[in-house]
Amino acid sequence: MVSEKINEVINEQINKEFYSGYLYLSMSANLNELGLFGIASWLKIQAKEEVEHGLKLLDYLLERNSYVTLKQIRTPEFEFKGVKSVFETLYEHEKCITNSVMNIAKLAEEECDRKTLNFIEWFIGEQVEEERQVKNIIKRLELFGEEKATLYLIDKELGQRE
Predict the structure, then answer these.
(1) How many domains does the chain have?
(2) Separation between Cα atoms, residue 10 and residue 67, nearest integer Å
């Protein structure tokens, strides 16, 4: 069983991961409506991945004979100002998620909970990868702009993700 503090922060993280899924889905739907089907598909796949992260955390608590407390998932809010703004919003969001995961690792270290620390290391690596992916898309949009040809090529490339 994990400590009360670790149980609480992991339950909070489950909620954050499910919220991340909602955020990605919201953006996916928005871009789908605009006809950017490849980017929308990339975002939808990412939404599924975020939900899987939440489920992985949930399963961990159950495996440790701890309790799961699912809380209400708030409605994602973002103002669409273009494709670059979508990815900038996601980058800031992913940085917050990374910070949250790092706080779980810090608490696990403080409590000498090696199992949780070992478990959460996977999430740290995953966050590094997610931040890198989103930042690379932003860099390309900054370099080439949001002209139709650029968006077409990025949409085509991101749509290849399976």
Answers:
(1) 1
(2) 10
Q: SS3 for 67?
A: coil
39-77 confidence digits (pLDDT tens): 999 999 999 999 999 999 999 999 999 999 999 999 998
What tokens appear for 158 in the block? 């991101």
User: pLDDT (tens digit, 9 = 90+) per residue, 2-43?
Assistant: 999 999 999 999 999 999 999 999 999 999 999 999 999 999
CA distance 20 to 155: 21
Structural domain range at position 34:
4-158
3-state helix, strand, coil in the chain (%, to 5): 80, 0, 20
- pTM of whole model > 0.90? yes
* CA–CA distance, 127 with 49 (Å, rounded to integer): 12
**Distance from C-alpha of 76 to C-alpha of 26, rounded to nearest angstrom:** 7
Q: What is the CATH number of the domain that holds 27?
A: 1.20.1260.10
